[in-house]
Every structure is written in structure tokens, then in C-alpha cells.
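Forwarding these from the shared drive since the link keeps breaking.
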Amino acid sequence: MQLVVGAMLVDDLDVPTRLLAAQRTAERDVPVAAGPDGRLPLWEFPGGKVEPGETPRAALARELAEELGIAVELGDELEPPDRPTWPINHRYELRIFLARLAPGSAPPDPQRAPDPSHQQVRWLGVEEIPDWPWLPTNRVPACLMADRMRWS
């Protein structure tokens, strides 16, 4: 199985109030999923594949720099309740880490990133998260974060 990492990028690691959603470009050679209305692509946590010899945290920092042009501070991992990774499909599994922009980092901007793979990003408030058109693999973790935000 190929390990993929994703960043649950929030405005504050201790008391988050906003979560970043990223929408992939449909032109790339990366599979994208359509929403119930057939529109492509759905939204996701930014991230990517872990390369051989790379730790998941190092891979995530690299992917965010390449795809969004940002530097981040990584927080805790958000693990599923019943397994070590979030299943994507029969070929990929996902690990999700909380993250925030590092001090001095520019805001996420797919247009200025070295290897842009997203057409847009959007900061979501707690009330927007549950109904946002997430990739199926990202919906449950996003809703868990919305619950955490409500109780912070």
C-alpha cells in the first residue's frame, strides 16, 4: 500500500477556528473524484505521497511547500478510532496531521507554488465544514475537526 499524508491545516493548533480545504486541478494526472452533482473535483486536505526513505512528517512538509508554497508547523496526528490509517482505496492509505502556518510563512496560494496541484483553497468556519463537498476519505476527519472546533 502506498502511504499518502494530508494536512488538516488550521489557524491555531490549540484552539482552531478555521480549517483549510483545497480543490485539486482536474488536469493533473492525479485521480480526482466527482461530487454527487458530477462536478469535478471534490475538496481535500492538501498533501501527497510519501517517497521512499521519507518520514510522513517530512513528506507532508515537502508536499505543502511544493503545492501551496507554504511552510508549516506540524501538530498531532489525527488517527482513526479503529485502525492506524484512514483507508482511501485498495492501493492507498492516508495519515492526517494537524498543521498551522509557520511564523513568517506566506498564506497558501496555489498560483505561486512551485508545483501547483490545486486550483483553489478556502478557509472554512466550523459551520461550513460538515456540508462542504469533501473527498469521501476526508469527510469523517473533517467532521471530527468541526466537532473539536465547537468544543474548543
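-- next protein --
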Amino acid sequence: MGTIKKRVKRRLPLVFIFLFLLVGIAIFMYPKVSNWLSVYTSRVEIGSYNNAVKEMDNSQIEALEKKANDYNEALAKKDTQSLSVINYEALLTVTDAIGYVDIPKINIYLPIFHDMSDEVLQKGVGHMEGTSLPVGGKSTHAVLPAHTGLPSAELFTDLDKMELGDVFYIHILGKVLAYKVDQIKVVLPEDDSDIQIVEGEDYVTLLTCTPYGINDHRLLVRGTRIPYEEEVKEISTTPPTQDDGEEQLSVEVIVTIAVIVIAIIIIAIILLILFLPVGKERKNKKRASKEKQKS
């Protein structure tokens, strides 16, 4: 027993080196694996949404559009009486998502959900209740918030790379709405002057916290509606499908398994270092065994 304790004590520095290596691998891989899982979840959500829309007939789509337009019109007119009888959560409901945003400049597709709850903002883009629904139309201004800097998902982390003139797209009920960035501002959280409805305009504002790691201001990237022309889309951004999600998951599974195998190997090495006799210890053990047999 005493020999084992001495062995462990003598080899502790080497053990700590391997432990630090194990922790380093875990810290390095966590954001990557988590973001891969987030991308997978988004792709499956968007694929499910697209499939559900394809299965709807025109009358169902038109009914959803009408209710959304009625809501937007009531907002623009500040018709509180009409708004009070509208069930916000039921508007544009196809799946959990109400649509998705496509931003070629920063290479993301993200599902859009009702409200701004923490649960929503952990997995995609929210919709700020009290602003227009993102179905387009004159005198509308939809505000779509998402997190920046989450260790588990990138989301709007790269939104600060957007520039005036960049184009992003909103996919709603099988239609694609194009918006060209015409204003980028950083404001205080309580300043809502730049997210108001402007008569006759069709705006969508992408919102996230800034600066990275401090998050005491809000970055507003506003787009104004332009005609959608698929042939001039900035990057090939074919809408994700559930198959894309499964393909993405297969990559994640391979990487995750590789990381787990590396971790197991490191743990095995640590155990061998601690408990496997080497060098003089092994020779002494053999010598003692031979002497015991002779006696």
C-alpha cells in the first residue's frame, strides 16, 4: 500500500499534465459541438416548417396571412380594441416556428418564433410582441431579436459584420421577402425610437446585444423591403431540409465520438501512470517474487 502511495505521489505532476490536457480538450470542443447541435436543431426546425407549409392548401395559407395582416393593420392604427381580441400566439402558427430568416452575409438560417422568452432566444430568433409580424406590407416594422455570444450557439454573434446595402431574407408561408440594410445603429436598451412603425414603409429590424461580452447596448440592423429576385441572391442559400439536419448530425456524432475516445484514452493513460509499476519498481517486484519462491 505504501508503495502505491509513493508511486501516486511521485507521478502526480504527470497526471496533472494529462488532466489539464483533458480539460483543455473539453473547453475547446464545447462551443463547437454545442454550435453544431444548435445548427442541427435549426435545420430540422426549418425543414419541418417548410414541409408543413407545402402540405397546406392555398385557403389555409391565405387565412393565416389575413389574420397576420389584420394584426399589423391594427398595430399601425394603434387600434387597441382590435388588438385585445387577437390571440398573438396563434398568428402564423404552422409549427413551433412562424418562419425563418436567411442572412447570406453571415451565412445563417435561423427559425423565427413567437415572443422573446429565454427559451426562444436560446434556440433561434424571437419576434418582439407589439411590433409587426414579418409578413411585409406598407406601414409595418417587424423586430426580430436573437442572442449574441452564447457559448452554445452563434445565432446573431456575427450581426455586427453586416453593412449598409447587404440583403437578408424572411421566409414566411412559402414566400420570400427581401430586405436591404439601410440603417445600422447602436442604442441603449430603453431607446425604442428606431423600432417604431413608419407610415408607408416596410421594415424589418434585426436586434441583438452589443458589445460582445458586455451587452449593455443594442445593435439594430434595419432593412427596407426590396423586390425579391432569386437570380441575384448573394449566396446560394437553398433552404435547409430535415435531411440536411441529419447530415449535419452525422458529422457532429463523428466528432463527438472522436472527442469521447480521446478523453477515454487520456483517462486510461492517467490510470496506467498511477497504478502500473514501471522501471525499478517492476524489477524490484520481480526480484522480491523470486526471493520469496527460493525461500
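The domain at 98-236 is CATH 2.40.260.10 (Sortase; Chain: A;). The mean pLDDT is 83.

- D.
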